[in-house]
Amino acid sequence: MPALTATAPAKIILFGEHAVVYGQPAIAVPVNQLRARASILPAVKAPPGQIHIQAADIGLEAELQELPEDHPLRILLHNVVQVLDIQHIPACRIRMTTTIPIAAGMGSGAAASVALIRAWSSFLGEPLGDDRVNELAYEIEKIYHGTPSGIDNTVITYNRPVYYIRDYPIQVFQPGRTFHLLIADSGLPARTAITVGNVRQAWLAQPQLYEQRFRAIGDVVRSAKEALETGRLTEVGDLMDRNQELLSSLNVSSPDLDRLIQSARQAGALGAKLTGGGGGGNMIALVEPDCRPAVRSALLAAGAVQVIEAQISPSP
Ligand code: PMV
After folding, report:
1. Rounded to 5°, angle at Cα 109 from 185 and 46
2. 256 is catalytic
3. Distance between alpha carbon 150 and the CA centroid of its chain, in Å?
4. First-to-last CA distance in the chain?
5. Per-residue b/e over 50-74, b at no fewer than 16 CB within 10 Å?
6. What separation in Å is there between the alpha carbon of 142 and the centre of ligand 1?
7. Which residue in 155, 286, 308, 153 sits closest to 224, CA to CA?
8. What pLDDT does 192 receive?
9. What sign for the dihedral angle of Cα 144, 286, 306, 54?
């Protein structure tokens, strides 16, 4: 029997990270050229229930039973078995691979969860639909991040541009034209759990000030949705700059990200900002197609370890 395989895309948050945890809207899009993959093969000679798991990108190779009970992979597989009410689990080998930079603010963890939930439920004979996949992936995000907004698992599961408000049904939206982005990795790990925790502490200490900043980010996101839908490129760039200013006021940027953002703007990007949790990880720059080579070179010269091109396109 061939391996049963499922994949899921990376994501970037275009607007609204951090404030989205506090009920403001955010906009995120999938990045389909980067993907997490889960493959499952039956292990005919192994005793029933024995699960061997290999995830070389995170240095993991083990029998599932050897992992601590609170290991996210163990919880994920268990939760799917429970939801499907499966009594007999065939022995198998699970192999996880990814081309998504890990801990870089691109949703590598959520993509791995979505791919594994899909492959595992199919392997067990009852492939889960998107809504269930999304719920289960959200439970695993909570283990990684404590108080996630749910935006990562949502955009990755549905694989569409989303306008997301925590605890509300997802809204997909249609960009009015193709937008070109460069995504540059600072080479330092994104510190999402830390920056989210720091923002929470700061909000608890100065609730009015922080809520004012969150609301200002919400205003940027609402304007950005309209500008994206109507294809107003320059305005989208300006709003990215404004969003970055507000993220800096939350203290979630870093000198390395600031340097990349500055260099992209100087090389002709229409706007630039960090994406995801910040503290490290990736930044994004909005570019006209003819500006791509200059901005890419500037980003590499400013210390980016990798620059990826992505497009946000209207769906056919
Ligand atoms: O760093 P990432 O890709 O996991 O994105 C985190 C986004 C935040 O808004 C900072 C947190 C969240 O749960 O939405």
Report:
1. 130
2. no
3. 10
4. 35
5. bbbbebeeeeeeeebeebeeebbbb
6. 11
7. 286
8. 85
9. positive
For tokens 């599961």, the residue is 157
pLDDT tens by residue, 114-132: 999 999 999 999 999 999 9
- pLDDT tens digits, residue range 45-58? 999 889 999 999 99
Give the mean pLDDT of 275-290: 95
288 CA from centroid of ligand 1 (Å): 27
pTM over 0.85? The answer is yes
pLDDT at 1: 57
Residues 6+ apart with CB under 8 A from 63: 50, 51, 52, 53
CB 197 within 8 A of CB 53: no
List CB contacts of 255: < 8 A, sequence separation 6 or more. none
Burial class (CB in 10 A: 0-12, 13-18, 19+), 246: buried
What is the arithmetic mean of pLDDT over 146-154? 89
Q: Write out residues with Cβ below 6 Å of ligand 1.
A: 13, 17-18, 20-21, 105, 107, 145, 148-149, 151-152, 190, 192, 196, 276-277
- Sequence-separated (6 or more) residues with CB below 8 Å from residue 51: 63, 64, 65, 77, 89, 91, 92, 93, 94
**How sure is the predictor about 265, in pLDDT bands with cuts at 50, 70 and 90?**
very high
pLDDT for 102 equals 87
Catalytic residue, chosen from 152, 185, 238, 256, is 152
Q: Which numbered atom of ligand 1 lies nearest the CA of 192?
A: 1
Q: What is the mean pLDDT of residues 140-165?
A: 91
One-letter amino acid of 3: A
Candidates 113, 99, 105, 119; CA nearest to 40 is 119
Q: What is the 3-state secondary structure (H, E, C) of 8-48?
A: EEEEEEEECCCHHHHCCCEEEEEEEEEEEEEEEEECCCCCC
**Tokens 């570019």 sit at which residue?**
287
Total residues belonging to the chain: 316
